[in-house]
Structure formats: structure tokens, C-alpha cells
Design a protein that fits this description.
Blueprint: H1 2-34, H2 38-63, H3 72-85
Amino acid sequence: MTEALVQFLRARLDEKLESAQSSAAALTRNAGTLGVNPEKATAFAQEMVTAAQARIRLFEETVYPYLWVDGRAGRLADLQMRLKAFEFTAHPDYRSDWAPDSV
């Protein structure tokens, strides 16, 4: 079950990054048309992409390595993964047994 949830979460995080990159490009390209200060649009666009990248790093560097560790560290990693995946409950591939309260 853990591996399926890992794959699900990685796919969703990758989708979020792709969406942030597309949105950032559109915002930067169309800032003037949208009536947005170009410098602010560029800064906001970079923040969106950086936030998506940080979510991936947070999962890969501080959660994933501990998922199969016994004890408290493993339980906390599992809970963190479930909490992050809970954001995607509306996705058709999300399974209710992945909910953080189902542990």
C-alpha cells in the first residue's frame, strides 16, 4: 500500500510543478495585458514554481527516506505522506484508505 501511495503522491506533485511552470509562464508573458506589474508578476511566478519544487524536495528528502524505518520516525513519515496526499482527495485515483485518520 505504501508504494502505491508514494507513486500517487509523486505523480500529483509532478503535476503541480508542471501546472506552476505553465501558470508562471502565462502570467509572466501576459502581465501587461492582465494589468499586473511585470516585476511583481515575475516574482510571483517564480514563487509558484519554487514552492512546487520545494514540496517535491520536502517529500523526497525528509519523508520518503523514512517510510520503511521502524518506530516513531517511520510512523511520522507515513503520517506526513498521508497528510500531503490528503490534499488530492478529489482525484479519481485517491483511495480512502490513504486518509490520515485511517491509520
